[in-house]
């Protein structure tokens, strides 16, 4: 059965989509059939994969709300073979789902039900959650087997972790008793900055007893360049894997290897 990993943090700008894209890429490179699922109405993951969100006829939105609109259930719209991964895309229509689902019975299980037919097809499903604690994040956590938390190495980001963990515990207690924490991935780390060093120390001290804390992803111009090129980092680099670039690839591979052991 597939491991369904929700990449989740209620804060925006922590590198969540970059982590989801590159984790999927490294899992694919390690021989795993992998599906990326974009659950963010901003559709950043879909755009990062080179898909024009304005010209999508179907997205994850259609699979979530088909029955509400009186239609038969719609299979996941999947775009295949994108850098060794498949993608279930999103577009701005997904923003309407928050309102449309609010009064629906069993709304929390919409995504879980939608992905159920694919659990034997994919080794991994990676869900890019929206940066909020709304219904789209809830249904993503209900559908997931594990949660991977990107956390920026800033004091404010660490302070927000209590809220994130509280939400996860509520989901575990009420809706998904099998949900587990896959770990914390510090992001945007500037090793030359005393504040980042202290925050990373605090992240390890406070969170390592809860779940694994991975090696920090450094701030890197090449990561931003890969995003602008609409490619996973490894695909963008090609053979240029020396120095800091190689270190970043090693971190993504470290996380992918840990996901294999879940």
Automatic annotation (TrEMBL):
Domain AAA: 3-180
The name this protein goes by in its record: ParA family protein
CDD domains membership: ParAB_family
Coiled coil stretches, renumbered: none
Lineage of producing organism: Bacteria, Bacillati, Cyanobacteriota, Cyanophyceae, Pseudanabaenales
Organism this protein belongs to: Pseudanabaena catenata USMAC16
SUPFAM superfamilies per the UniProt record, alphabetical: P-loop containing nucleoside triphosphate hydrolases
Pfam families listed in its UniProt record: AAA_31 (PF13614)
Family the entry assigns: Belongs to the ParA family.
InterPro entries registered for this protein in UniProt: AAA_dom, DNA_Partitioning_ATPase, P-loop_NTPase
């Amino acid at each position: 059965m597939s491991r369904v990993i929700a990449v989740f943090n209620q804060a925006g700008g922590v590198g969540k989509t970059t982590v989801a894209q590159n984790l999927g890429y490294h899992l694919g490179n390690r021989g795993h059939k992998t599906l990326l699922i974009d659950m963010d109405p901003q559709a950043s993951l879909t755009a990062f994969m080179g898909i024009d969100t304005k010209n999508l006829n179907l997205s994850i939105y259609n699979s979530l709300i088909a029955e509400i609109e009186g239609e038969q259930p719609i299979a996941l719209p999947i775009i295949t073979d994108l850098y060794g991964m498949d993608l279930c895309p999103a577009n701005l229509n997904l923003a309407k789902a928050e309102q449309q689902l609010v009064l629906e019975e069993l709304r929390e299980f919409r995504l879980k039900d939608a992905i159920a037919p694919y659990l034997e097809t994919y080794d991994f499903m990676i869900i890019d959650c929206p940066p909020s604690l709304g219904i789209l994040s809830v249904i993503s956590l209900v559908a997931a087997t594990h949660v991977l938390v990107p956390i920026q190495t800033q004091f404010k980001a660490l302070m927000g972790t209590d809220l994130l963990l509280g939400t996860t515990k509520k989901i575990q207690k009420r809706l998904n008793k099998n949900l587990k924490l896959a770990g914390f991935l510090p992001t945007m780390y500037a090793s030359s900055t005393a504040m980042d060093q202290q925050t990373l120390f605090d992240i390890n001290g406070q969170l390592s007893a809860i779940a694994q804390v991975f090696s920090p992803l450094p701030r890197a111009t090449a990561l931003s360049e890969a995003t602008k090129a609409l490619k996973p980092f490894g695909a963008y680099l090609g053979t240029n894997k020396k120095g800091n670039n190689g270190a970043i690839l090693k971190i993504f591979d470290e996380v992918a290897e840990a996901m294999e052991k879940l």
